[in-house]
Design brief:
The chain is built from 14 helices and no strands. By secondary structure, the chain is an all-alpha fold. It has a single domain, classed as Hypothetical protein af1432, CATH 1.10.3210. The structure holds fe (ii) ion (2 copies). The site of one fe (ii) ion has 5 residues, from helix 5.
Length: 227
């Protein structure tokens, strides 16, 4: 990673050059072997999950950097924790995950459990990184206005790292194809994040982070990588 304390705010392109092209591969291959064994088949079966995870890791570290931290160790841990935010999806029923628009209420509850399942898995590994990763996994679907899950936490009761990941998670999901929608371009995704649509409302995001996201929109768009 570049020396941010000396150079001040680096650009998204500089961060990209420092982290990529093999950032995701490096993080995944450095995981404890027992964890890698559990998740690798799903990551191979679902390259979209692998790319989504990597993008959210890169974008989250960049947004954390934009928020003004000088602690490059924290930014590196945030990137690695963010990359694991959806790890609980590897424990879900793949048939339910592929249903798209036809999901039932019970299916939704099952899908929504991925945060807690991921946190439980990551907590077993101990250490600062996995404690942070468990926090992020468990809270990345909380919303600033309390409309999120699993706990319906409000505002700063949601850990900062999870607030950062939540915003980057939604951006990447908008840019990527899903069973229920096509991939949107950067401008379209930014319009939805800033103005809302039927699924997304700006009130669900930390307003300070949302302002940074808007201010650094060009870099955010440059950091995104399609599958
Ligand atoms: Fe998620
Ligand atoms: Fe996600």
């Amino acid at each position: 990673m570049p020396d941010r304390s000396r150079n001040g705010l680096i650009s998204g392109q500089e961060l990209y050059a420092a982290l990529l092209p093999d950032f995701g591969d490096r993080v995944f291959s450095a995981l404890p072997p027992s964890l890698l064994r559990q998740i690798e088949p799903n990551l191979i079966d679902d390259p979209g999950l692998r790319q989504h995870s990597t993008n959210v890791g890169v974008l989250s570290s960049f947004l954390g950097h934009c928020a003004g931290t000088q602690d490059s160790g924290w930014l590196d841990r945030l990137a690695e924790a963010a990359i694991l935010h959806d790890i609980g999806k590897t424990r879900l029923d793949p048939i339910v995950l592929r249903k798209g628009r036809d999901v039932t209420r019970a299916d939704m509850d099952h899908i929504r459990s991925h945060g807690i399942l991921g946190a439980e898995l990551l907590e077993t590994y101990g250490g600062d990184l996995y404690a942070l990763a468990a926090t992020v996994a468990g809270h990345h679907h909380e919303a600033h206005d309390g409309s999120g899950y699993p706990q319906g936490l409000i505002g700063e009761a949601i850990p900062e790292e999870a607030r950062i990941v939540a915003l980057c998670d939604v951006y990447d999901a908008l840019r990527s194809p899903r069973t229920y929608k096509p991939a949107f371009g950067h401008d379209h995704a930014m319009r939805i994040i800033l103005n809302g649509d039927t699924r997304t409302r700006p009130q669900q995001f930390d307003p300070y982070l949302l302002g940074l996201f808007k201010r650094h929109s060009d870099d955010i768009g440059a950091l995104y990588r399609a599958e």
